[in-house]
Design brief:
Blueprint: E1 12-15, E2 30-39, E3 42-48, H1 50-61, H2 66-77, H3 80-100, H4 121-127, H5 131-141, H6 151-160, H7 184-191, H8 196-201
Antiparallel strand pairs: 1-2, 2-3
Length: 215
């Protein structure tokens, strides 16, 4: 359907996406589906509902990724508690899958969003300025040594029940690239600001050939 059933006006409009933000550099033309949305937040005229429709269509086809996208939302919002609940829940499901021979769940820590420039949770946290989430992801999904972490973070992690698993054979999330071939470190370099000290310390740089980041 390309026309509104109520007023008959066209719903789709081709626009040039030259004004994309620093995080998503898609230079191709994009399509919008404009509508007047009236919900608990009030009336929003000219609301582009297409991203929501695309996401729901994708999740209908791949329902197993719904929790992965929820994880990315937690990373963006800085919701440490919700992240840990999801991560710890995945550990329980993984153990049950091993026992019963069922398929393992998707690794949310290393999930790359096909609808969001193949970003990881680490990319999303950096993009949204969530330092506490970045510390948590480095703690649970890298082999960064403990002396690099702030003491107050380690104390909070213990209180909240965050645990580190053996990383042998697992991909270091710091090495994963988005669709623009950027690691989280590359993104931090572009954004600057709060991430300047992170870039200098090389905490976001994966260990290569046994070379550790500097303090």
């Amino acid at each position: 359907m390309t026309q509104c059933a109520s007023c008959g006006k066209p719903l789709t409009l081709e626009i040039d996406s030259e004004e994309e933000d620093e995080y998503d550099r898609d230079t191709t033309a994009s399509q919008t589906v404009l509508c007047n949305l009236n919900n608990e937040g009030g009336l929003q005229e000219g609301f582009d509902i297409l991203p929501i429709l695309k996401e729901e269509s994708y999740l209908k086809a791949f329902p197993e990724e719904r929790r992965c996208r929820a994880f990315l939302e937690f990373c963006a919002e800085g919701d440490v508690g919700a992240m840990l609940d999801l991560i710890n829940g995945d550990k329980d499901v993984s153990m049950s899958s091993n026992e019963e021979g069922a398929a393992r769940p998707i690794d949310v820590l290393r999930y790359q969003d096909p609808m969001g420039s193949f970003s990881t949770g680490l990319h999303v946290a950096v993009s949204n300025g969530r330092e506490e989430i970045v510390w948590l992801l480095l703690f649970v999904a890298t082999s960064l040594e403990l002396h690099f972490f702030p003491p107050d973070f380690l104390e909070a992690a213990q209180t909240l029940g965050a645990t580190r698993e053996e990383q042998t054979g697992k991909v270091d999330i710091r090495i994963l690239e988005d669709s623009s071939h950027r690691t989280a470190e590359n993104l931090a370099q572009q954004l600057g600001g709060v991430w300047e000290s992170w870039v200098r310390s090389e905490r976001l740089r994966p260990i290569i050939d046994g070379i550790l980041p500097v303090v």
